[in-house]
UniProtKB/TrEMBL annotation:
PANTHER family: CHOLINE MONOOXYGENASE, CHLOROPLASTIC
Top-level division of the source organism's lineage: Eukaryota
Assigned EC number: 1.14.15.7
Species per Swiss-Prot/TrEMBL record: Lithohypha guttulata
Reactions this protein catalyses: choline + 2 reduced [2Fe-2S]-[ferredoxin] + O2 + 2 H(+) = betaine aldehyde hydrate + 2 oxidized [2Fe-2S]-[ferredoxin] + H2O
Role this protein plays: Catalyzes the first step of the osmoprotectant glycine betaine synthesis.
First-level EC class: oxidoreductase
Family: Belongs to the choline monooxygenase family.
Cofactor requirements of the protein: Fe cation
Name recorded for this polypeptide: Choline monooxygenase, chloroplastic
Alphabetical UniProt keywords: 2Fe-2S, Iron, Iron-sulfur, Metal-binding, Oxidoreductase
Protein's pathway: Amine and polyamine biosynthesis; betaine biosynthesis via choline pathway; betaine aldehyde from choline (monooxygenase route): step 1/1
Domain Rieske: 50-137
Pfam family, one: Rieske
Length: 412
């Protein structure tokens, strides 16, 4: 393995863990600019970790479906006739054409517009035209590629793209009981409905967005509206496993205006900010090492007035716009190649330091597995059946060529 890539992973030289009252070195800029690192993140994080996606209220009727995408993986969430929500990759099992091309809809069956293969709401193959002429074709082995779906206690929907029958990483390993945190008890999540969603695209790495979201050290200088939403002086974070809780003590005025906020970040790329009149579900969607989209799903309490909702909505829109500028300008300097990393405050930047710790550990673990296997490991990838010997031979031939081509660079 090249020394450059070992340095990307922090395996070349180690910096001792600092005391709580000493500054802590952040992840190096190469982790925010490297195409190699982005590809490794797709395998190590986005192919195998649980990700918060939306709320079940958006799939209220049988047949309702929504399409999402993360690092190039397109998938569909759908409510089945029995009320359960399931998911599958947006890939026809026949020739890989997308099953749906719109963003959302309602269906009784999913029909591929390439060759007419059709699937039930459960993803099982219903019809493959002319394939009844063939011997040995097993419909049960040709359903849509499933993804793992979990609906938590608050009704939020999570997915895991791990292609194994059981995900290697259990949801509880990262998020046990976070969906029943005590401060959620004051909210009835069934009262919230989607008002709208929007996206903000920009020239920034997804991790720089996460670093920015998880600290308020920058709030006094960059966000004049934040004191309206939260008390900066009492702001702190509580972090464990895959979550970061943001806490502050609201004033009586903030409580009366419905501005008391319960905000939680969920590794790798999502957060929920809950207020009495408003919920913002935020997802950071990477498209490469220095391009990402901030995706916002905005829910309103159906019992709240327009004035109550708009007060919070407009505040957040201004904050989001300010964050975009901050992250793009920081990323521009990372891309320039001068800056390596800085020293972060262990209390005021505890949130991004926890996020970076989890990212570092997750990536290193997967990297070591690939190093031992001497090949990239894609957890979301299709698992070939034991009867597909020719396909396996073809796949191994191509993999062998790739290994030879990259051998001088990777030195496995």
């Amino acid at each position: 393995m090249s020394n450059m890539f070992l340095n990307y992973l922090g395996l070349g030289s180690r910096t001792p863990v600092a005391e709580d009252k000493s500054p802590v070195r952040a992840l190096p800029s190469s982790w925010y600019t490297s195409q190699e690192m982005y590809e490794l993140e797709k395998r190590a994080i986005f192919s195998r970790k649980w990700q918060l996606i939306t709320h079940k209220s958006r799939l209220s009727q049988s047949g309702d479906w929504l399409k999402f995408e993360i690092t190039g993986y397109e998938f569909v969430l759908c409510r089945k006739r029995n009320g359960e929500i399931n998911g599958f990759h947006n890939v026809c099992r026949h020739r890989a054409f997308p099953i749906v091309q719109e963003q959302q809809g309602s269906a009784k069956i999913f029909a591929c517009k390439y060759h007419g293969w059709s699937y039930g709401l459960d993803g099982k193959l219903a019809k493959a035209p002319k394939y009844d002429e063939l011997e040995g074709f097993d419909k049960s082995q040709n359903g849509l590629f499933p993804i793992h779906v979990r609906v938590d206690a608050s009704g939020f929907v999570w997915i895991n793209l791990d292609g194994n029958e059981t995900p290697e990483v259990p949801w509880e390993a990262d998020f046990d009981k976070i969906d029943t945190q005590e401060r959620y008890s004051q909210y009835n999540f069934d009262d919230y409905v989607l008002d709208h969603e929007y996206k903000v695209e920009g020239a920034y790495n997804w991790k720089i967005l996460a670093d920015n979201f998880n600290e308020c050290y920058h709030c006094p200088t960059a966000h004049p509206d934040i004191p309206t939403l939260a008390d900066i002086e009492t702001h702190a974070v509580d972090s464990e496993f895959g979550w970061i809780k943001h806490v502050s003590v609201p004033t009586e005025e903030q409580k009366s205006l419905g501005l008391a906020i319960a905000s939680t970040y969920f590794f790798p790329n999502s957060s929920i900010s809950v207020l009495p009149h408003f919920i913002m579900l935020q997802r950071f969607l990477p498209h490469g090492p220095n391009r990402s989209t901030m995706h916002y799903q905005i829910f309103r309490n159906k019992n709240s007035s327009e004035e109550q909702f708009e007060l919070i909505h407009q505040l957040y829109k201004r904050v989001v716009g300010e964050d975009k500028v901050l992250c793009e300008l920081a990323q521009k300097n990372l891309d320039a190649g001068i800056f390596v990393n800085g020293e972060m405050h262990p209390r005021l930047e505890k949130g991004p330091l926890h996020f970076q710790k989890v990212a570092r550990e997750t990536i290193r673990e997967h990297f070591e597995r690939e190093k031992a296997a001497k090949r990239p490991i894609w957890p979301a990838r299709q698992k070939l059946q034991s009867t597909t010997g020719v396909s396996k031979d073809d796949e191994e031939l191509c993999s062998g060529l790739a290994c030879q081509t990259n051998q001088s660079e990777l030195a496995w």
